[in-house]
Amino acid sequence: METLKVFITLLALINPFGAIPMFLGLTAAQGPAQVRSTINTAAVATAIVIAVAALFGEMLLRIFGISIASLQVGGGLLLFFLAFKMFNAEPDSARSTPEEAHEASARSSIAVVPLTIPLLTGPGTVSTVIIYADRTQHWWEMALLVLIGAVIGCVVWVTLRMAGPISRLAGQTGLNIMTRVMGLVLAALAVEFVAVGVRTLAAV
C-alpha cells in the first residue's frame, strides 16, 4: 500500500479547507466552548468513519453481494462527479444538500451531521477507504490505513481550529484554488479506479 498516496487521496477527498465556509456558517451562533466541542467531535468522528470503513466495509459489501470491481467503477464515477464539482469550486453542494444545511442550522450539535457526514466523510470517502482496504495484504497495512485516518482527523482538527485565520488570510479565492487543486487530484484517482474496475470486470 502506497502510504503517501493514500494520505494525499483521502486528504483531497475530505478537503477540510473546502469545509471552512460551511463550518463558519454552522457555528456562527455557537459560543467558544461549543465551537471547541464541535471541532473535537468532528475530528474524532472523521477518524472513526475511516476506521470503520476500513475494518468492516468489505464485509458489508459481501453481505450485499457487491464486488470490489463494481465498487471501483461506481466509486470512481462518484469521485469524478465530486472532483468536477470541486474543480468548479462547488464542494458544499456536492456533498450536502440545502435541506441538510437548513436542518443543521436548527441543531444544537452539528459536529457529526452534517459536518462530518456528509460534508467531510461522504460516500466518496467511504468507498475509497474500502477500495484501499481491499488492497492491503498484511494486518499492519490495515493498521496503517486506520492510522492514516487518525492523522486525517488531526488535520481536520487543526484546520477547523484555524478556520477563522485561514478564511481571512486565504479569502474565498484562496480556498477555491485549494479546492480546485484537490479536485484535480481526485479526478485522476477516479479515472484510475474506473479503469482498474472495468479491466477486472472484463476479465471475469
Structural notes for this entry:
InterPro entries: Multi_antbiot-R_MarC. With 204 residues, the chain is an all-alpha fold. The chain has one domain (3-17, 41-203). It contains ten helices and no strands. The protein has helices at residues 3-14, 20-26, 32-64, 68-87, 91-95, 98-105, 111-120, 123-134, 139-161, 163-203. It starts with a helix and ends with a helix.
pLDDT below 50 for ≥5 consecutive residues: which ranges?
A: none
Strand content: under 5%
Rounded mean pLDDT is: 87
Mind telling me the C-alpha Rg? Answer: 17 Å
Number of E strands: 0
Number of helices: 10
SSE order, one letter for each helix or strand:
HHHHHHHHHH
The domain count comes to 1
Structural class: mainly alpha
Overall 3D geometry?
globular
Q: Alpha-carbon distance between the termini?
A: 24 Å
Major beta sheet summary: none
Helical content stands at over 70%
List the helices and strands and how they pair.
Elements: H1 3-14, H2 20-26, H3 32-64, H4 68-87, H5 91-95, H6 98-105, H7 111-120, H8 123-134, H9 139-161, H10 163-203
Helix pairs in contact: 1-8, 1-9, 1-10, 2-10, 3-7, 3-8, 3-9, 4-8, 4-10
